């Protein structure tokens, strides 16, 4: 009799746990390039308003760091990169589903600093003493900046003179410029709109670097997560486009 009672209690508790789990809803784990932090915070909030039972767990960092984390087993349903290189890396590692990958936003590269800094072109940048860029090894903004400086013929000179200050991501580069810890920084236009003190001194000509495109795609885990699939669909809606444009992104329609 006691054994039967214990069994009934166990079944009751198991049913309760299942019910609570159902009420709690699902989870969506996002790995998003740091330059999209503010836009995705708003996108996440608006999505949750329509899907209150879903929890969104974002991880914002440099595209390279996020890609390496995913390969090493970090949980993620959706990956958003600030360049094609790191998405291609995950495709090669078979960590994202090719059919879900698309370019969904674009950006531009600018150089920011104090308002009284006299810089009108990349040649002027070479005359400064401390220049912040995201580390080209893992930060797409840094890779674009390095490309532009190489084409302009100033990159090797700046490296040789130890003028480049490496940042872990584009937001840190902006912080250095805002705090006047450097004379200027290469960042995205969208990040420049968030600057407290630094201003745009120069828009880097687009022909000097690869196109700044943001590919996104579902991971293998995300493809099995209906909530992640719903979120991916939401990112293509007019409401999501409006939010992206609000933060300075150009919405891409091409794949």
Automatic annotation (TrEMBL):
Sorted keywords for this record are:
Metal-binding, Molybdenum, Signal
Give binding positions for molybdate.
35, 63, 141, 170, 188
Any single biological process term in GO: molybdate ion transport
Keyword check for Signal, yes or no. Answer: yes
Family of the protein in this entry: Belongs to the bacterial solute-binding protein ModA family.
The entry describes its oligomerization and partners as:
The complex is composed of two ATP-binding proteins (ModC), two transmembrane proteins (ModB) and a solute-binding protein (ModA).
Name by which UniProt lists this protein: Molybdenum ABC transporter, periplasmic molybdate-binding protein
